[in-house]
Amino acid sequence: MSTKVRTADTRARILTAACEVIADIGFEKIRMRMVAERAGVSTALLHYHFDTREKLFTEAMTHSFANTAVDVERDAESAPAAVILARIVRNLLPSDPQLHQDWKLWQELWVRALRDETTRVFAVDLYAQLHSWVSEAVRRGIATGEFTPTDVDGLSTLVLSLCDGYGIRLMLRDPTITLDMVLAAVWRHVSTALGLPDAVPTD
Prior knowledge:
By secondary structure, the chain is mainly α. The chain has helices spanning 3-25, 32-39, 43-49, 53-73, 81-91, 97-113, 117-143, 152-171, 179-194. It has 2 domains: 1-51, Orthogonal Bundle (Arc Repressor Mutant, subunit A); 53-194, Orthogonal Bundle (Tetracycline Repressor, domain 2).
């Protein structure tokens, strides 16, 4: 294994550990030592890659987002556009244990962004990436004739807003809603705008 590959592997292991620790106890309570122990590396090596907690946090968020994007984009060129869009909606919600962890990271990000300008700018940029994620999938479906033309930016903003609102309630284990109810509610708006069947597509 080359040095470059080993370095990339070490960074990925550290970032995965950081995501887990931040989700477990919250950013304000973490210490670099805790992340190093979870990743199985020395504190010195951790500091070599990430010299501050803030840098570690932002890169952990980016790492989490990138991993989710990889899952969504698998077979994107051959799968129906509706399947890809439904996959994106599921990944915008705490719909499995990994995404539940990711949502804890997002909640930490929101709190920090209210108090720290650098984090606020970073959070706004991540939302712009999420918006592009949804809008590009919608535009792809319109271009192939699978979707009815619509206000792409407006629909993308609506999808993100609905997923945020419902996602918080799912994280709170609100007994009045379920994941299936949420998916159906979000997809109802999507299907109406894009001329699709009401049923949420499955992979």
